[in-house]
Design goal:
single chain; 304 residues; alpha/beta; Rossmann fold; three-stranded parallel β-sheet; 10 helices; globular
């Protein structure tokens, strides 16, 4: 199923739908981002929900102001971002105090410890807990981890159904601040979703494995009083745009970049139509205006 049933969405997400478009300014927009915008704004408009815009620039090494401004310019050109929205955008680089306060509270309900491991010091995605009992002092060159207790974390995906994951086995103790002092994606996005009272997280299926660990972390943050919003949110993990080799598009995919397409004379509606067709939301290629993307979810063509 490429698109969720809107009746199911309305029955399942009983609180007002608040979702977000949250790009990282580490490159220019490409068709994969446009697909995400279609799902985010399309479902929000079809359900009279709200879209928040968040710039996830927690990675201060790879994030660039040039990409930040380009992302917003391309969103405006495509027709998704309204001019009066730009003043309400939050940027993670400006929220270090919020994350620091959340970490301080987290220490009261969970085991938090310093870690000097690099990714190359252990094999696979799962961190084996090497530094948990070493008693290392926190400081430069050392990350900070939170211990995740065993057990299943569960959430509902409006396209895929119930998601059940065991974060302690998937990733081990979660890194919340890296060895360079940067807040991690997993920590910053969970704090922000709680603070912004997000009720529906819409993102690519490549981030499906992050769901359980964010659900577990969010429960800990609620337990220590970081925020009292609804948790966990509902999720929708949508298909990805793949290249001819079957590989997910990256920000270096120039031929599918919005800037490149603009320069070659492609219209905003044609860009949106290409993105929608690439993931099966359109049966045949045609132009779709940003104001009309809700229609892609209102009636599902046969066979999809």
């Amino acid at each position: 199923m490429l698109r969720p049933d809107l009746d199911v969405v309305r029955r399942t997400v009983t609180s007002p739908i608040v979702t977000r478009f949250a790009p990282s300014p580490t490159g220019f927009l490409h068709l994969g981002h446009v697909v995400n915008a279609i799902y985010v704004w399309g479902l929000a408009r079809a359900t009279r929900g709200q879209v928040l815009v968040r710039i996830e620039d927690h990675d201060r090494i790879r994030s660039r102001p040039t990409f930040d401004s380009a992302l917003l310019e391309d969103l405006l050109w495509l027709g998704f971002l309204e001019p009066d929205q730009t003043g309400s955008i939050i940027r993670q680089r400006e929220r270090s105090g919020v994350y620091e306060a959340a970490l301080t509270r987290l220490r009261t309900v969970a085991r938090v410890y310093a870690c000097d491991c690099s990714r190359t010091s252990f094999r696979g995605e799962r961190y084996p807990g090497r530094c948990r009992d070493r008693g290392l002092a926190e400081g430069p060159g050392r990350g900070i981890r939170v211990q995740l207790e065993p057990g299943v974390a569960e959430a509902e995906d409006l396209r895929l159904g119930v998601i059940q994951q065991v974060p302690a086995e998937q990733c081990g103790d979660l890194l919340v601040r890296d060895r360079d002092g940067h807040w991690t994606y997993q920590f910053a996005v969970t704090v922000d979703d709680l603070h912004q009272r997000v009720t529906l997280v819409i993102r690519g299926v490549d981030l499906l494995s992050s769901t359980g660990r964010q659900v577990r972390l969010g429960h800990l943050l609620q337990q220590c009083g970081v925020a009292d919003g609804p948790w966990p949110p509902h999720y929708l993990h949508h298909p990805l745009v793949m290249d001819d080799a079957g590989v997910k598009l990256s920000k270096s995919s120039g031929a599918t970049g919005v800037r490149h397409l603009r320069a070659t004379g492609v219209t905003p509606g044609e860009v949106i139509g290409r993105a929608a067709a690439a993931v099966g939301l359109l049966g045949s290629l045609r132009s779709v205006a940003a104001r009309d993307v809700a229609s892609l979810f209102e009636i599902a063509p046969r066979g999809l």
